[in-house]
Design brief:
This protein is mainly beta. The protein contains six helices and 25 strands. It has a 16-stranded mixed sheet that branches.
Length: 424
Amino acid sequence: MNIIKKMAKETGMLVIMLATVLGLAGAARANEITEVDGPVPWVSHIRGDNSLLVKQADTDWFEATVNTPIGEGDMVWQDGKGRSEIYIDKGTYVRLDRNSGVEFAKLEPGKAHMVLTKGTAIFRNNSDLDYQVYLPGQTAIIERGAKSRIRVDGDGISEVKAQRGRVYVDGAQGRVRVDRGHKLVGGPDGNIVRLAKGSGDDDFDAWADGRDRALASAPGTHITVVNHMPEPVAVELGRSGVWINDPEYGYVWRPTVAASWAPYREGRWSYRPGWGWTWVSYEPWGWYPYHYGRWVHLNTGWVWTPVKVRTRWAPALVFWIDGPDYVAWQPLPYGVTLAMTWRWGPSHMHRYVDHRCITTVRHVDFHRGHYHRYVHHLPSNYHDHYRVVRRPAGSHSRPINHAHYRTPTTRGYVTHNRAPREGT
């Protein structure tokens, strides 16, 4: 039985119903939105612990985890300890070698433009995106079906190699086509140094080819929605759960988890201006199920239904309850949209509270992540002390330095804040 059908009795409590992206830290702000129109890249793979750094406009550099979303203007640096992959859409990604950096300069509907600031990266485009990479004095245009390895050294010399399909480079001498197996070397002034046959592959190419093989290993399925998911999503869902055909919801995905498990607990809340509170899951499969579709609690436990899975990305799909010393959140019910939360308001939405599904933590634990360690039951008299507010008064509502809670470790709440540097 789902959480809509299993409504809690009305107890007089008031629920603050907010789309997560409107956020605990400023729900009334007009610049915070419920869904994102353009592509939202995410960190889909990291090789090397604590080796990928991200800098947003309002943060210092922090150590990213898998499932960290990437927004327009973000800078990413892969240090010397590992390699990483950032997916943008199905078959469309950027992979970073050691000591390499990229900035996501423009993310708009139908458009993804990046700056390769230094180092080596592989860019693949298997979508209809206008996919461009800015280089010193030049711009590489990665057409649909193409894959390109691009390198920028410390002197601004760039090397563009077409590994699949054709790549075009705009520079001081106009547009030049680079065919498969060839490379173009250009200077920082935009002039071509040479256009010749490409060199052989190295261990970075071998690693990237291994990732392609791993992502292609997902077994075929007749479930249509799975075939439209980006490759890392389909692979991780296949590894970590099973698809079942429910008579009410159709095909749903059931994670392989403990009986006490609940969604939106194994991860952290990350505040980002324009998005508000955004869920970053620590579970390897935790990209799609927390940003698309709905979670439903059946008699047999939790399942995720990919209803309207290809609609716009949302930073999270929950509603909130705020109290004097705690904060709680619960997955949005099936059939309830983010827009409804504003039309109906708290006086209507309180009926959807389900004590089996809600996560309650103290304010002091809100920034810690790994919330399964800190879950409390809602106090029996919590509605007596609750008041409806647009912005909760608790300290959890004020974003702290992102570096203080971005990186989880087994030791708990620690501070990580370091600038990128080579060879580390």
